[in-house]
Write a structure and sequence with these properties.
Number of strands: 0
Structural class: mainly alpha
Radius of gyration: 48 Å
Shape: rod-shaped
Amino acid sequence: MDIKEALRSFFKEIILPELTEIKSGQERLNERLNGVDKRLSDINAHLVDQSRRIDAIRDELNARIGSVQNEIAETNKRIDRLYEVIVRREEHSQLQSKVAEIERRLGELERKLAA
């Protein structure tokens, strides 16, 4: 029984304190791990919130971009219409010049015929 007692004494003196120290260290690590896990959860919740905000802003920006695109399309239509009006005015001005030239030449012809 001396060997048995010696082994018990050995375990009590050397192994048990080591086990107690290992358990204590493991408990501290578990506490730190739980703290890190909580921080990660908080960060994840924050990121989810930020993601939702970004999605909302993206939707708002897409709506604004669509609105601006519609305004640009409308402006382009107005510019096209303005161009048509300007071209018609130029054509009108050219036609007036041609008509005036034709009237002048007709007047000359009538004078020559009358003479």
